[in-house]
Amino acid sequence: MSEHNKLPESYYRLLHELQAVDFVLVELALYLNTHPDDLAAVEQHNAFAVKKQQLKAQFDAEFGPLQQFGNSPVGVPYTWKEAPWPWQV
Amino acid sequence: MWIYEKKLQYPVRVSKCDPRLAKFLIEQYGGADGELAAALRYLNQRYTVPDKVIGVLNDIGTEEFAHLEMIATMVYKLTKDATPHQMKEAGLVGHYADHDKALFYHNAAGVPWTATYIQAKGDPIADLYEDIAAEEKARATYQWLIDMTDDPDLRDGLKFLREREIIHSLRFRECVEILKEEQDRKKVF
């Protein structure tokens, strides 16, 4: 099994930033399902959705596709299947 | 349809190889109140609950798969460098004989996962009360796991998962209130 200790510090920094923004989005998504009329929460959700897209584009460009099935651009040879996978880092 | 993201929901760090910890963490992988049971329970119940609460079941069910992946990562990292002797010492001889170091859906005692752990009653209140109970039982399990774990990195990930159970329970409780309110409104005409 391959080791991925050589990943740059910037990979972990960007990953953590993405995890933090995505956590806000998951929390708001669950909250809004039972509080659909909360305008401030909807606005916060949409602001963080923009931030998420920016971070995702940065991750896609620097470390390869974050998502599959056409949701991230891929390179040649096909970059999606390349390690590291989340449980390897 | 689901889209996979090549990242964990929350970072999983493990200080050292420790198959002893993996042996009891597997409870939340393939146990009665574990993440597999949670994900399959909610995503199955969502077809027959009222529209007002489908979103909650759909989204929490989806998040449970992210938790399943976190638990799997913990178990994988705790065991990947273990020798057969260490697996045996940790009480994983039965697991090793059948699965080597592959993960498998069973509980801490080695009992395989079964659909009898979950229910779909077709009665939204009955289903939601089961879901609330499931979250509270999972929260309790996470507390026992945290109490038995001396690895500070691992405890951090387990605490995150414990807190998510609390939020999920809260959201399911709100669903019950939403349905009760709707039922009361129907009576007044």
Mean of pLDDT of chain A:
95
Number of strands of chain A: 0
Unreliable stretches of chain B: none
Question: What is the class of chain B in the CATH system?
Answer: Mainly Alpha
How many independent structural domains of chain A?
1
Describe this structure in words.
With 89 residues, chain A is an all-alpha fold. Chain A is 57% helix and 0% strand. Chain A has one domain (9-88). Chain A has helices spanning 9-34, 39-63. The model of chain A has no long low-confidence stretch (mean pLDDT 95). In chain B, helix 3 runs antiparallel to helix 7 and helix 7 (124-148) runs antiparallel to helix 8. With 189 residues, chain B is mostly helical. Chains A and B meet through helix 1 of A and helix 4 and helix 8 of B. Chain A: InterPro entries: CotJB_dom, Spore_coat_assembly_CotJB. Chain A: This is Protein CotJB domain-containing protein. Chain A: It comes from Tumebacillus flagellatus.
Brief write-up:
The complex is a heterodimer of chains A (89) and B (189). Chain A has 89 residues and is an all-alpha fold. Chain A has helices spanning 9-34, 39-63.
